[in-house]
Amino acid sequence: MRILVVGAGPVGLMFCSRLSQGGHDCVLIEQNRFDQTFSRASTLQPATLELLSELNCLSDLEPYGEIVSEVMAWNLDDGTIRESSYRILSACTNFPYRFHLHQSILRERLIAELRRRSRCHLVEQSKAVAVHFDRHDQAVSLEVKLHGVSCLTQTFCGDYLILCDGAHSALRQQLGLRFEGYDLPMPVVRLSTPVLPACLEEQLAGVSYLQAAKRSLSCLKMSDGWRFVLRPSLSEVYEATADTFWARQCLADSFADLVPPRWWFSHPAKRDSYNVAQRYVSNRRVKRVFVLGDAAHVTNTRGGINMNFGLLEAYSLASCFLNDAGQDALDRWNVFWLGLTESVLMERTTQLHSGRTPHFLNPKNDELDSLMRSCLLDLLPYTHSSF
Ligand SMILES: Cc1cc2nc3c(=O)[nH]c(=O)nc-3n(C[C@H](O)[C@H](O)[C@H](O)COP(=O)(O)OP(=O)(O)OC[C@H]3O[C@@H](n4cnc5c(N)ncnc54)[C@H](O)[C@@H]3O)c2cc1C
Q1: How far is the CA of 11 from the centre of ligand 1 (A)?
Q2: Cβ burial, residue 136 (10 Å; 0-12/13-18/19+)
Q3: What pLDDT digit, counting tens, does each position of 31-90 carry?
């Protein structure tokens, strides 16, 4: 069998990595160069670490990331702190921690691993522009525009096509798949700093959710510093996305009792911002085409679930192909993951809106069960199912 994959983001790469453990050929088509790097998602959840370990990719990643076991919610107004630890998952996983890693490094390492495997043909700087179905629904073909050659396209043929071409997928639109949901009115703003004052670093857990009357912010410890994730109000958007001043001022206000405000203005920091939405496709399968990852769902990024969910579903679909699943099983895969998208991904990420405290940090909930769900360990069994 020959499977075409569009998009060398983490999800397309996970699909190809799993598929190349078996006897199928795949062709991975990416519009950009493989060595382009953008800083985007940063959290690998325990369920994803289990899968990367099975693919023998984890040890390559370990030197580049940060193991984070402790998590806290800190109310800056009244000083209340609630803590939890991923260590309570020790009986359920070999990886009772989050692994904070820049998405670009995950991508780079997965590409390097695929280059070593002969059954995956990697095509870069080539943009997929159109999908065509065989009249008898026995195959699918993809028109690809070759980089730098203005009108030249090449046609690739395969038994199946997997679209992992991201949130703005043009091919999804061409297939007539609706991407229903809503855009969130405010962007997410991130400030990254290589250092923190020791007094603050001692107070924070590797993942810290901070709340004050006026705002909430998340703090993530990375291997190369700290990442602060802030959510401006509507009236703050212009200022928040203009330069670093707004974010620096938020941190100065939030930690005024611990850190002299001028500290935040006298140290290097990088800012970026991105828009968020809650949207998903109404169907994951159109004939011989499947849609995965951000092309199938985008969510609020709080809690670090969306990309991890995409990685799990990619592994799951590739496992179906490895098990030589027939058409009925593939249909069942479609219905099943569509259901999980609604009942798990959308539900859990909606709960994390507006800076609400994650479930496992709320003493009313069962801590172990809530933590398992927040890091998607409850979905792990489905990634090996043959449907
Ligand atoms: C600026 C930004 C910051 C983010 N930050 C966070 C964060 O902090 N935390 C978090 O959890 N998530 C974050 N996300 C979301 C996270 O990056 C995504 O969930 C993740 O990248 C999804 O992976 P993917 O493989 O599905 O899609 P993508 O990573 O978007 O990959 C899609 C790939 O397809 C390629 N492609 C697209 N169209 C074509 C075509 N026609 N032909 C060939 N190739 C094509 C693209 O070039 C790209 O390489 C962020 C996203 C953005 C945009």
Answers
A1: 9
A2: exposed
A3: 999 987 777 999 999 999 999 999 999 999 999 999 999 999 999 889 999 999 999 999
CA of 167 to the centre of ligand 1 (A): 7
How far does the centroid of ligand 1 lie from the alpha carbon of residue 307, in Å? Answer: 9
Beta strand 179-183 with 25-29: parallel, antiparallel or unpaired? unpaired
Q: What percent of the chain is helix, strand and coil (3-state, nearest 5)?
A: 35, 25, 35
CATH architecture of 2-42+62-67+103-183+278-356+379-384: 3-Layer(bba) Sandwich (3.50)
Pocket-testing residue among 103, 124, 217, ligand 1, by greatest number of atoms within 8 A of Cβ: 103
Ligand 1 lined by 128 (C-beta under 6 Å): yes
CB atoms within 10 A of CB 203: 16
Cα 268–272–278 angle (5° rounding)? 150
Task: For 263, list phi and psi in degrees, rounded to 5.
Answer: -55, -40
Listed by start position, the domains of the chain span 2-42+62-67+103-183+278-356+379-384, 188-274
User: Of 125, 294, 315, which is best to mutate to test ligand 1, by the most ligand atoms within 8 angstroms of its C-beta?
Assistant: 294
CA of 57 to the centre of ligand 1 (A): 20
Cβ 305 vs Cβ 359: under 8 Å: no
Average pLDDT, the chain: 94
Nearest CA to 161 out of 141, 143, 146 is that of 141
pLDDT surpassing 70 at residue 353 = no
Q: Report which protein residue has its CA nearest ligand 1's atom 29.
A: 9
What does the chain come to in residues? 387
Quick check: CB of 352 below 6 Å from ligand 1?
no
Enumerate the β-bridge partners of residue 120.
26
Q: Which pTM does this prediction carry?
A: 0.96
Q: Is pLDDT above 80 for 238?
A: yes
